[in-house]
Structures are given as C-alpha cells and as structure tokens.
Specification:
This protein is mainly α. 71% of the residues lie in helices and 5% in strands. The chain is built from two helices and two strands. A two-stranded antiparallel ribbon has the order 1-2. A hairpin with a 3-residue loop joins strand 1 and strand 2. Helix 1 packs antiparallel against helix 2.
C-alpha cells in the first residue's frame, strides 16, 4: 500500500502539478462526456435511421409483392392471348386447307359439268343450220343447259328456272 502524503508535506510545485493534472483529468472527463453525448446522439440517429430503413424495406417488399402479382397477371394474360392467337392461327390453317380442298373439288365438278354439258353441244344439220341434242328424259329445258354453260364460261348468271330438275 502506498503512503499518502498530507497537505503539509506537499510542496507548491507538487500542488501546482496536482492542479494541472486535475485540470487535465477534468478536460478528459468533459471530452469523454462530449464523446458519450455524441455517441448517444449517433446511436439515436442510427436507431432512427435503422427504423426508417426497416420501414423502407417493408414498403419495398410490399411493392415487390405487388409487382410480382402484376407480373403473374400479365404473364397469365399473355399466355391466354398467345394460346388464343395460336388457336386462331390453327383455325385459319384448317380453314385454308378446307378452302383449298373445296377449290379443288369445285374445279373437279366444273370439269365434270363441262364434260357433261359438252355432250349436248350443237350439231350441224345439213338442212336448217345448227341443232343441239338435249336428252328429254332428264326433263331439263334447253335454256337451262345454256345458263349452265354461260356460268361455266363466265359470260352470264344462272337464271331461275321454272323447269323441274332431277
């Protein structure tokens, strides 16, 4: 244990040194208090900033969840529209194929009809000029044959017939 000196034993230089040391300790204490105050203020600001950051993060998470939901809705809509477009394209292709088949069938039927009508072509009669042979068993008027021929030749329209057909 150290021996404490009494006030009477201390010299004025030592007393001045003690006062100087006390002033320095007080200055350090004040600096420490200032640092502690700054640390508290910084801590409080940091805590407030952390709370604001947490709040911003929560808002960002909510916005992200909304954006994801919007993305899902748009993606689903695009998928549905893509499917609808693909279905329409498929129907169009099917319709084009059917139209082509019908065009070919119409060409075939036109050729057959022309062949049939050509069997009733005018023949030359040596007495009065051209004569056309029509099969009377079909009960079709000769004028009707001429209408059909005009349609095939693209020179007329079929006229409504009052004659009985097949």
């Amino acid at each position: 244990m150290t021996t404490r000196r009494t006030v009477n034993e201390i010299t004025s230089d030592e007393l001045d040194a003690l006062y100087a040391e006390l002033a320095q300790v007080r200055q350090h204490a004040e600096q420490a208090e200032d640092l502690l105050r700054v640390a508290h203020e910084t801590s409080n600001r940091s805590e407030a900033e952390r709370a604001r950051a947490v709040e911003r993060a929560e808002r960002a998470e909510a916005t992200l969840a909304e954006a994801r939901a919007d993305y899902e809705r748009v993606r689903d809509l695009l998928r549905a529209e893509n499917k609808r477009a693909n279905d329409a394209i498929a129907r169009e292709c099917t319709a084009e194929q059917a139209a082509e088949e019908q065009r070919k069938r119409a060409e075939q039927l036109t050729a057959v009809l022309r062949e049939v009508l050509d069997t009733f072509s005018p023949m030359k009669d040596t007495h009065d000029g051209p004569v056309v042979y029509y099969d009377g068993s079909a009960d079709i008027e000769p004028k009707r044959y001429e209408c059909w021929r005009a349609v095939l030749d693209d020179t007329g329209q079929p006229e409504p017939s009052t004659a009985k057909e097949g």
